[in-house]
Amino acid sequence: MKARFVVSLVVLLAACSRTSRTVPPLKPEPSVPPVVPVQPEASAESALAVVPDTMISYRVPAFAPLPIVEWGPPPEGESHSPRARTYDLQHQVVHVRFDWDRHAVEGTTTLTLAALDTAITSVALDAVGMTFSKVTGNGGRALSHDYDGRTLTIDLPAPLAPYARTIITLAYESVHPKKGAYFVDRRHVVWTQGEMIDTRYWIPTYDEPNDKTTWEMYIRTAKGERALSNGKLVGSRTVGDEIEWHWRLEKPASTYLMTAVTGNYTVLQDKWRDVPIGYWTYPDSVKAAWRGFGDTPRAVGIFSQKTGVKYPWTKYDQIVAPDYIFGGMENVTATTQADDGILHPAWAEPQANADGLVAHELGHQWYGDLLTTESWADAWLNEGFATFMEQTYREAAKGKDEGAIDRLGAQRQTIAADARTRRPLVWSRWKVDPLELFLSGHIYPRGASVLQMLRHQLGDSLFWAAMHSYTTKHAYGNVTSADLRDAFEAATGRDFHEFFDQWVYGAGVPQFRVSYAYDSASGNLTLRSEQTQPVDSMTGIFNVDVDVKVLTDSGTVRGLARVHGKQSTLTLALPAPPRAIRWNDGGWILEAHDFPRPTVMLRYQLQHDDDVIGRLEAVSLLSDRPSERIAAMAVADAAHEDPFWAVREAAAAALRKFASEEPVAQADSATAGGPGTLPGATSVQDSIVAAALLAASADSDARVRESAATSLAAFDAERVETRLRELARSDSSLFVRGAALVSYARIAPSEALPVIRETLGRDSWLDIERTSAVNALEFVDTPEAWNMLLPYLAFSADRHTRQAAIATLTAKATKEGRQSDAAAAIVPVLDAPDFYSRASAAQALGTLGQESSLPALEARRKVEAESRVINAIDAAAKEIRKQ
Could you report the average pLDDT of every consecutive run of 10 residues in the chain (883 residues)? Predict the structure, then answer.
């Protein structure tokens, strides 16, 4: 499963520290103005040339205050033990029909099960909100049973001996199921969702991950519609005015992976070797489906080759679903994907590229489906592995730089999660639903980061050999973290107990203060590190090996800092003075560090490091020095000169930090009169930086243009307004148009209002243009703007726009003191048809803090089934009562 949630990013690498030895001045490079022309060009360059250099760029800053990252409290919740099994579900046959008039699931199911090593007298099945018209055993004999609305307990006619089998048949229905099965009227599509424990809402079954079974699905649809389920299609037949589709899964899997999707679908056929691959899409979206799904065979090949385990199922289908509650779900052999995550127009790439989502869910066919976590406490064995496979695909298909930024993104997400709520990978505490374990922000990125560290430590050959051993040994079974550790130990002959204690059963990351000293007489560079993270029962002192790289004019020197304890020292012999020094070269170790270096070193690193993570680090640290001319120049150059889009994007985003409070228009006017009339270096710096952003706004990559458009809001000049207006109306990417419109509204709200009105009147994919216009209204401080927002809270509005309207209205209310008005307008959204809007409404009401909202929150809490909304309501009510 790929959850849809926003994780705030933190800067991993803080800039500030003081060494114990003064670093001899390096040979300064000549200061070069940006390539981007500034108007008038000659005056700006001349003006910069006369600004005195205070030599601050050669100084080593002081350490930042501790801690580098402050831990959040552990997540709330009670501990949950895995369910103890008393029987083995061996096969299940389901006949199901979806009644559109009643939004009901009508079904019969036959379960073949066996006692385990102890005789049993009853069988408990998970079944929520159902009615049962028949409960029979072998030979059709009626069985006594008890049902409390959640568990159906069936009394067996005689004790079932250990390992003996029995058969139970049920006839049931579920009307308006709260979860599990979803009727989407606008598309006439039904889709189901089992993970974590939601299959029980539409099929009576054993609904926990620690058992595996085979199954068959007989699904009825109207003529002209199709039904997709797991395994292979055995056949179809006409039954009255309906069609019955028969699917069979011949290898065992956990029941949360059961699926049924029905609707008017076109099936596009593809393949990898002898494995059939199908793309199920709407008849009007064939080209978009090929665009979103088309690289699947390549990903199947990469994963089969890396793991040494050929794709393990008979076929692989992917189907798009409307109003889906996650990004995707790895239902075995039949993945469901959110249609808006897959089907996108060509102009929306690269931002809307679906390769990561496709690769993630495909990776689950090995890790999650073939091998399944024994309990939700070890869910990282599903999601961390799928995220790692997604990274593996990106690196193999798109190159090492793309793989590196995927790793970096996962590390940032992990540290951001620790700053909110620190927890180990293995964790069994939740409040409402085990889904909370998935959404804390840990198991996906931290799990992938742990596997990347193992890969780096062992090397690709040995790592994938261990993965192969783990995968083949536990195929079609359940696994724990200890099983993974044992597999790596057996395959490598090494002891991984300490590694797993630190990274899997422990929490947090090492936080380093790093300093350096260079002795010009001996040519030795000494690096000293100290672990500074707060230590407690969950987080200790880490033992880890950190890669170090030093760039010199006579070549690159590499070393390994073996950090085994609170402090460590590494000495390297250099052929020439250091021009740049990297700690954690390649970004392989999950850590945070504060390593102060002079600005000239960071500039050199940005210009010469072949590691994209090193260049991104340099951009981040240089942007924290907005008063230094050399830092501004280096980042401005990177925004249009770096060969990799992610560095240009980051540089464009960072340039907003170099804006002064003094309007750039003054600098332009002064510059026109020559260097003698400059009001100060800061204004000229603004002019240079704004010019760099204007150039970046014409980059060939839409991600860079979008970043530049956002940063231009920090610079108030006529040419900036003109450019933002152009971008908002005519850029080929609607993502860029949206960012430009919001920036335009920030700096010139009155002038932007006509463009906002134009944009509100246009329909677009995902309503993206209208959503950006709603976001822009936050900066238009007129009564008209408030009233323009209200219609987009209606249920008839696109849910993306509705969520934007909630956020914008909340922000405006906070600025204008209209919290009560905003709360009254948002309360009805608690009953919106989509859970995204309900959760957004609850969060907004908590921010607005109006006691009058409590009755509506409490009323929604009583009928709400989606745990994400329940948790948002609880948090909002708590915040309101606190205020």
Answer: 54 30 32 29 37 74 97 96 97 98 98 98 98 96 98 98 98 98 97 98 98 98 98 98 98 98 98 98 98 98 98 98 98 98 97 97 98 98 98 98 98 98 98 96 98 98 98 98 98 98 98 98 98 97 98 98 97 98 98 98 98 98 94 96 98 95 41 31 75 97 98 94 98 98 97 97 97 98 96 97 98 97 98 97 98 98 97 98 92
**Which tokens sit at 214?**
């085979």
C-alpha distances out from residue 98 to 80, 437, 846, 852, Å: 34, 31, 38, 40
Q: CA 162, CA 160: separation in Å to the nearest integer? A: 7
Find the DSSP H helices in 371-399.
380-398
Can you tell me whether residue 488 is helix, strand or coil? helix
* Identity of the amino acid at 268: L
Residue 675: cis peptide before it, omega within 30 degrees of 0:
no
* Tens digit of each residue's pLDDT (9 = 90 or more) over 531-563: 999 999 999 999 999 999 999 999 999 999 999
Query: What gap in Å lies between CA 650 and CA 699, rounded to an integer?
Result: 13
- Distance of alpha carbon 177 from its chain centroid, rounded? 29
763 beta partners: none
Burial class (CB in 10 A: 0-12, 13-18, 19+), 288: buried
Smallest CA-to-CA distance from 743 within 722, 763, 757 is with 722
Beta-strand pair 266-272/275-281? antiparallel
Task: For residue 530, give the H/E element and its range.
Answer: strand 524-531
Distance CA 497, CA 489 (A): 9
Look at the alpha carbons of 738, 742, 744, 750 in this order and tell me if their dihedral is positive or negative.
Answer: positive
> What's the angle, vertex CA 545, arms to CA 541 and CA 547, rounded to 5?
130
Q: Which helix (H) or strand (E) holds 244?
A: strand 242-253
Instruction: Enumerate long-range contacts of 341-345, CB under 8 Å, 24 or more apart.
Output: 341/292, 342/288, 342/289, 342/292, 342/293, 342/318, 343/281, 343/282, 343/285, 343/288, 343/289, 343/291, 343/292, 344/288, 344/291, 344/292, 344/765, 345/288, 345/765
3-state SS assignment for residue 649: helix
CA distance 309 to 775: 48
727: closest CA among 711, 703, 744? Answer: 744
CB atoms within 10 A of CB 309: 16
Cβ-based neighbours of 480, under 8 Å, separated by 6 or more: 373, 374, 375, 378, 381
For 806, half-sphere exposure in the C-beta direction (CA atoms, 13 angstrom radius) is 29
Angle at which helix 599-608 crosses helix 612-622, to 10 degrees, equals 150
Question: Residue 300 burial (CB < 10 Å; 0-12/13-18/19+)?
Answer: buried
- In 474-556, which residue ranges form alpha helices assigned H by DSSP? 481-492, 497-503
What lies within 8 Å, CB to CB, of 843 at 6+ separation is 872, 875, 876
Is residue 436 within 8 A of residue 871, CB to CB? The reply is yes
Peptide bond between residue 40 and the one before it cis (omega within 30 degrees of 0): yes
pLDDT score of 681: 35
Distance CA 101, CA 105 (A): 11
**In the numeric block, which tokens belong to residue 615?**
């260049």
3-state class of 111 per DSSP? Answer: strand
As given in the structure block, the two tokens for residue 108 are: 């019969």
CA distances from 495 to 500, 608, 825 (A): 10, 38, 60
Q: Is the dihedral of CA 709, 712, 716, 719 positive or negative?
A: negative
| For residue 258, cis peptide bond before it (omega within 30 degrees of 0) | no
- Does the pTM exceed 0.70? yes
User: Residue 222: helix, strand or coil by DSSP?
Assistant: strand
